[in-house]
Amino acid sequence: MEFNVKKLVGDAGTLFTRAVQFTEEKLGTSEKTELDAHFENLSQRCDLTKSWSEKLVRDVDSVLTPNPGNRVEDFLMDKIERRRLARLSNLDYLGVDMVEAGNDLGPGTLYGSTLLKVGLCQQKLGALERDFATSATQAFVDPLKKFMESDLKSILRERKLLESKRLDLDAAKNRLRKSKTQSSQQMAEQEVNLAQIEFDRQSEVTRLLLEGIGPAHTSHCKHLQDFAAAQARYFLACSATLQQLQKELGALSLQVSSSDITFNNPSIPGLSERRKARVICDYDSQDITELSLIAGEVIDVVSTIPNEPDYVQAERGHQAGKIPSSYLEFIDQTHSS
To answer: What local confidence, expressed as pLDDT, does residue 320 receive?
Structure first.
């Protein structure tokens, strides 16, 4: 690799000169060109916008992705422009384990069927959580990041260039003060005039960009409204899902109570008449005497099975077989006799 020695020396000299200027300004031994109060207020608002935008993005990311390791992984995937990996949430894992536990402990038992219902609900909540994370990111995080990566970066770049122009102007003014001959003064005055023109031009460009922070804040208000709307939809959907779970658990308790009276008592004959029932969740038949079930379908419950209190005899069209009673929810008002 070839190095440009002259450029390196020049850059080093510039850095040294800048360091001397900053030191003299701090000590009060060198004059500093001041910007007007309006410009300073715009600059201060820009600095506050930058610091709070960065913090808010981090905060929302923490809410949407609570696991710090996952946040680091997502950050790295974004940097290398790779698609983020799909992952299960804690609610998903809880739901999966509850469903597996319900199947292992027996879907025909009270505990097993309750685990199945609650586990399926947790999986629904996990899906809602992922949908909310996607919606919130699109509504608020992505626009804020885009603003920081485009508009804000441009402003910071122009402010840095303006500071460089100011230092050039102050250096030229300093040389003019130190010039002793008429020719050197004329040359220094030309340098000051050119530096002043460059400074004024850059100052105006930077001012226009800084004034764009106001409209950006207005856009951020809209993004915040979208974020709040996504959050409201999420919590409403979670509430509706949990309310439905409460109804199903309540119906399950009534069904179990009815089963204790009717199905589990050998002194009472079977159902007095056919009853309609809705299938709560999928069930795969264990042998040819059973029916496979699909969640949501409606079947006819024909009778109880004396020697198998956890099962009922059911029909679906021309198919007939026994079914675990805990997989069913009666949808008529008829009671067993």
So the answer is: 86
pLDDT in tens, 263-301: 443 333 345 578 888 898 888 888 888 888 888 888 989
**Residue 261: what pLDDT?**
40
Closest CA to 148 of 220, 76, 50: 50
Other beta carbons within 10 angstroms of residue 157's beta carbon come to: 12
Closest by CA to 39, choosing from 243, 240, 152, 200, is 200
Per residue, what are the HEC states of the chain? CCCCHHHHHHHHHHHHHHHHHHHHHHHCCCCCCCCCHHHHHHHHHHHHHHHHHHHHHHHHHHHHCCCHHHHHHHHHHHHCCCCCCCCCCHHHHHHHHHHHHHHHHCCCCHHHHHHHHHHHHHHHHHHHHHHHHHHHHHHHHHHHHHHHHHHHHHHHHHHHHHHHHHHHHHHHHHHHHHCCCHHHHHHHHHHHHHHHHHHHHHHHHHHHHHHCHHHHHHHHHHHHHHHHHHHHHHHHHHHHHHHHHHHHHHHHHHHHHHHHHHHCCCCCCCCCCCEEEEECCCECCCCCCECCECCCCEEEEEEECCCCCCEEEEEECCEEEEEEHHHEEECCCCCCC
Q: Which parts of the chain sit beneath pLDDT 50?
A: 1, 9-10, 256-270, 334-337
pTM (global) more than 0.85: no
Please choose, from the candidates 232, 320, 304, 217, the residue with its C-alpha nearest in 3D space to the C-alpha of residue 268. 304
Q: Which of 17, 10, 12, 18 is nearest to 163 (CA)?
A: 18
pLDDT for the residue 1: 46
Angle at 88 between CA 107 and CA 55, to 5 degrees: 140
What pLDDT was estimated at residue 59?
Answer: 94
